[in-house]
Amino acid sequence: MDKRLRYTLLGIIAAAIVAALVSAWALNSRQRHLMTCAALKVEILDDYDFVTQEEVEKILTADYGPFIGQRLDSVNLDRMEKILAGKSAILKAEAYTTKDSLLHIMITQRQPVVRFQRRDGGFYSDADGFLFPLQQNFTSMVPVIDGDIPLSEELSYKGRPRSEEERLWLGDILRMISYMSSSGNWNENIVQITVEKDGNLVMIPRKGKERFLFGPPEDIESKFRRMALYYGSIVPEKGEDYYSTVNLKFSKQIVCRK
Asked: Which of the following CATH numbers is that of domain 39-109: 3.30.230.10, 3.10.20.310, 3.30.450.20, 3.40.50.300?
């Protein structure tokens, strides 16, 4: 076949393909312009139950406005994502629509690692130091810290602590909680942590009457090693519940009292 003729045929085929694609895109655009949102489908991407599909729908209806029956090409997906991401228990929201007229919302929730319990109520913190309120639908089983907690934020607050001093204290606490969690042992054995007026921590185990005087949240690994030594060496010799307090505050010492 003549080269010129072959190139001409190839050009005609390419033009036909482009024309078909443009035609399909135009048809799809016209169809999309006529399609309306028929329903909302929410997918939760983690194992927490802080928010439900019903709550997501209520939030969008209240803060975005009616969207069922709205043309799909006019649904402001970015605005929906920002509205949902502004809610305390939601870390990230992704919204998209599909040809079956559905609005899809994918929700990633915040993962609490510790719960702070004050006299007036409680709140969570995630691993990044972001505080957010307790949720009505679900209670996360995480370590609980009570007592004189040096965080002044109101219970409805969401965000990081306002003062540098509070952020530093929370950072120390989160490093301690992370160590407890990674150990695979202390998270289960320590059921409560109390902050005393002087800032020292007291740890209460699941079993036994001992109260571990931990001191400030520093020198963490060394203190937990001494706690393990207490359970591994002193308890077998003296027996369970022989001591009422175990002081871990002093370097390289375990001070036990009846």
From this structure: 3.10.20.310
Q: Which amino acid is it at 93?
A: A
Identify the CATH number of the domain defined by range 112-257. Answer: 3.40.50.11690
Q: What are phi and psi of 255, to 5 degrees?
A: -105, 110
Q: Which two tokens stand for residue 120?
A: 């007036």
Residue pair 83/59 in contact by the 8 Å Cβ criterion: yes
Residues 6+ apart with CB under 8 A from 195: 145, 146, 147, 148, 149, 150, 201
Rounded Cα distance, 57 and 42, in Å: 9
| 95 C-beta neighbours (distance < 10 Å), count | 21
pLDDT in tens, 118-174: 988 999 999 999 999 998 878 888 899 999 999 999 999 999 999 999 999 999 999
Residue closest to 194 by CA, chosen among 251, 118, 247 = 118
Tens of pLDDT, residue by residue over 164-183, are 999 999 999 999 999 998 88
